[in-house]
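Journal club side-thread
Mid-discussion, someone asked how the predicted structure for our own chain would compare to the paper's figures. Pasting it here so we can look after the session.
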Amino acid sequence: EIEKMCNLGEMIEKEAIQKTRKTERINSIRNIVEGFQCSLEKAMDILKLTDDERKEIRKYFQA
């Protein structure tokens, strides 16, 4: 039981960290697009996002 609770706590922490990173990425991209008046693709190039990160970011900006 204790091990399960520790694993659950670690999982919750990892999810929170991932959500924070995603939010920071989105804010960074928005700032680049607005500040440099460039495309979403160019902003993602500047940040050297992976293909998976790009897919997630595109979903957010399409919404």
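Post-session note: Residues 8 and 43 are 35 Å apart (CA to CA).
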